[in-house]
Design brief:
Blueprint: H1 2-5, E1 14-22, H2 26-41, E2 46-51, H3 56-62, H4 68-76, E3 79-84, H5 99-109, E4 114-120, H6 133-136, E5 140-146, E6 154-162, E7 165-171, H7 176-191, E8 196-201, H8 207-220, E9 227-232, H9 233-242, E10 249-252, H10 254-268, E11 277-279, E12 290-292, H11 311-323, H12 328-343, H13 358-371
Parallel strand pairs: 1-2, 1-3, 3-12, 5-10, 8-9, 8-10
Antiparallel strand pairs: 4-5, 4-11, 6-7, 11-12
Helix pairs in contact: 2-11, 2-13, 7-8, 9-10, 11-12, 12-13
The protein binds 3-isopropylmalic acid and magnesium ion.
Residues 86, 100, 103, 258, 295, 297 line the site of 3-isopropylmalic acid.
Length: 372
């Protein structure tokens, strides 16, 4: 993450963090991230939290999944932590107001165009996946997903009725500058990693992908030390599980990135363990807006049972410490504590049939930090 945070040279001893816990297991995993951050705060930092309702809970309270005033609060703070949004209560396809709109609104309003989703396989979890350990070994990749363009945001996006039945349209639109800025970030990140970028598109079918491919190729000329490979998304889904350790930085458009990262989560052992950082462009002072959330959803089937895995959320908080707050040492401390806890055999039920609860896992991580 060096390139994304190289402007962050100072370590603030105090920070204001917006907390958007959301729905389902969101509040449960967010509570564990806060437990861990409280432990970090004891080491000479002060974190102030501003709670914001987002998703279904905001629809119930205000009739809208994210209020404009709350977007302004999120814009004004040092970083945002988000749990998950959505659930069966609000998922009627006929409903005009949906929890996910809150998430898309905060991403778009804060200009969070870059979603970084690191996928590393912990040794202790090599047997936690259906993929052979020898295939998984050494996997350490970073998916850089474009987050504010593509089919998620293109207009028109609507449904209507014609004589012969209903019709719906979504629009997949990319502008060159949107592709260039995400590609540039991917190449910057690759430069500080293993020097390889795989750009994923569907250029054999989609115009937007042909623009994607040529814009990424043009950006690559500024990075002679980084190798670039183009892959079609269908082939990528196969390669990702056949040879995951081959990949370093994978850059792709919004929806392909959404799909590929759920697939990639199988490599990590559980969708519960993957963190993410969504970053915007740096302002004049060099500060980037950042929102940190696990890649998993609200998991309504296990909500309220203490079974949710808080690892993705806690590792997202570590990414926040590193990238938005400039606290590299503290971020590494949290990551170490999570890895050591798992290596000690403490896991939630999604991993290796563990018996830890969401909160006992968080306790174990916090304890390890306090012991350092
Ligand atoms: C994700 C999620 C979201 C997305 C949903 C909840 C809108 O799947 O962050 O990957 O599609 O981006
Ligand atoms: Mg997703």
């Amino acid at each position: 993450m060096t390139a994304a945070n190289e402007h962050q040279s100072t370590s603030p001893s105090s920070a204001i963090i917006a907390v958007l816990a959301g729905d389902g297991v969101g509040p449960e995993v967010v509570a564990e991230a806060r437990k861990v951050l409280d432990e970090i705060a004891r080491r000479g930092h002060s974190f102030t939290y501003r709670e914001i309702l987002i998703g279904g809970i905001a629809i119930d309270a205000y009739g809208t999944p994210l209020r404009d005033d709350d977007v302004e609060i999120a814009r004004s703070v040092d970083a945002c932590l988000l749990g998950a949004v959505g659930g069966p209560k609000w998922s009627d396809p006929a409903s005009a107001v949906r929890p996910e709109q809150g998430l898309l609104k905060i991403r778009k309003s804060l200009g969070l165009y870059a979603n970084l989703r690191p996928v590393a396989v912990m040794d202790a979890l090599l047997d936690a996946t259906p993929i052979k350990p020898e295939v998984l070994a050494g996997t350490d990749l970073l998916v850089v997903r474009e987050l504010t363009g593509g089919i998620y945001f293109g207009r028109p996006s609507r449904q209507w009725r014609e004589r012969r039945g209903r019709v719906a349209v979504d629009t997949l639109l990319y502008r060159e500058h949107e592709i260039e800025r995400i590609a540039r970030l991917a190449f910057d990140l690759a430069r500080s990693r293993r020097g390889s970028v795989t750009s994923v598109d569907k250029a054999n079918v989609l115009s937007s992908s042909r623009l994607w491919r040529s814009a990424v190729t043009e950006v690559s000329r500024d990075y002679p030390e980084v190798t670039l490979e183009h892959m079609l998304v269908d082939a990528m889904t196969m390669k990702l599980i056949q040879q995951p350790s081959r990949y370093d930085v994978i850059v792709t458009e919004n929806m392909f990135g959404d799909i590929l990262t759920d697939e990639a989560s199988v490599l990590g052992g559980s969708i519960g363990v993957l963190p993410s950082a969504s970053l915007g462009a740096p302002d004049r002072a060099g500060k980037r807006p950042g929102l940190y959330e696990p890649i998993h959803g609200s998991a309504p089937d296990i909500a309220g049972q203490g079974r949710a895995n808080p690892v993705g959320m806690i590792l997202s908080a570590a990414m926040m410490l590193r990238t938005s707050l400039g606290l590299e040492r503290e971020a590494a401390l949290v990551e170490r504590a999570v890895f050591d806890t798992i290596a000690a055999g403490i896991t939630t039920p999604d991993l290796l049939g563990g018996t830890a609860t969401t909160s006992s896992f968080g306790d174990a991580v916090a304890q390890r930090i306090s012991a350092v």
